C-alpha cells in the first residue's frame, strides 16, 4: 500500500514539476519577446532528437552582444534566406577556429570577424554549418534557445565541448 501511495504522489509531483517548467518557459516568452520553433534534422543530436522537437527561444534583436559561446541559437541560414537553422555558437568575434577543409593537409585557421559568430551542430558528422558557409552575421541570429518543450520539457544549457 505504501508503494502505491508513493507512486501516486511521485506521479503528481512529476506533473507539478512539468507544469512549473512549462509556465516558466511561457513566462520567458511573454516577458522577453520569445518565440517557438520546431527542430527537424539530426544536426543537433543529442541535444535535440531532430524529429519534431519544439523549443522556445528568447528573441535577440538588438541584443546580439549577449550571444556567447555555448548558446544554441536560431538563425537565418546564410546561403538560403528562407530557411532557419538551429546551431550552437562555438566562437564569437575575435576568436579563431580550426576548420578541416577537404583536400588540405592541416586545418585552416579562421578568425571570426566583428559582428559575426561561428555556428556548428552538435552532431558534426551530419551538420551543415559554418564549416560550409563561414562566419554568420549576428544580424541573422534571431534568438537564443532557452528551453525544449517537446518531446520532453527541459532547459537548454549553455555548454560547449
UniProtKB/TrEMBL annotation:
<keyword id="KW-0472">Membrane</keyword>
<keyword id="KW-0496">Mitochondrion</keyword>
<dbReference type="InterPro" id="IPR019533">
    <property type="entry name" value="Peptidase_S26"/>
</dbReference>
<feature type="domain" description="Peptidase S26">
    <location>
        <begin position="108"/>
        <end position="150"/>
    </location>
</feature>
<dbReference type="GO" id="GO:0006465">
    <property type="term" value="P:signal peptide processing"/>
</dbReference>
<dbReference type="InterPro" id="IPR036286">
    <property type="entry name" value="LexA/Signal_pep-like_sf"/>
</dbReference>
<feature type="active site">
    <location>
        <position position="43"/>
    </location>
</feature>
<dbReference type="GO" id="GO:0004252">
    <property type="term" value="F:serine-type endopeptidase activity"/>
</dbReference>
<feature type="domain" description="Peptidase S26">
    <location>
        <begin position="35"/>
        <end position="101"/>
    </location>
</feature>
<comment type="similarity">
    <text>Belongs to the peptidase S26 family. IMP1 subfamily.</text>
</comment>
<dbReference type="InterPro" id="IPR000223">
    <property type="entry name" value="Pept_S26A_signal_pept_1"/>
</dbReference>
<keyword id="KW-0378">Hydrolase</keyword>
<protein>
    <recommendedName>
        <fullName>Peptidase S26 domain-containing protein</fullName>
    </recommendedName>
</protein>
<dbReference type="GO" id="GO:0006627">
    <property type="term" value="P:protein processing involved in protein targeting to mitochondrion"/>
</dbReference>
<feature type="active site">
    <location>
        <position position="87"/>
    </location>
</feature>
<dbReference type="InterPro" id="IPR052064">
    <property type="entry name" value="Mito_IMP1_subunit"/>
</dbReference>
<keyword id="KW-0999">Mitochondrion inner membrane</keyword>
<dbReference type="Pfam" id="PF10502">
    <property type="entry name" value="Peptidase_S26"/>
</dbReference>
<dbReference type="GO" id="GO:0042720">
    <property type="term" value="C:mitochondrial inner membrane peptidase complex"/>
</dbReference>
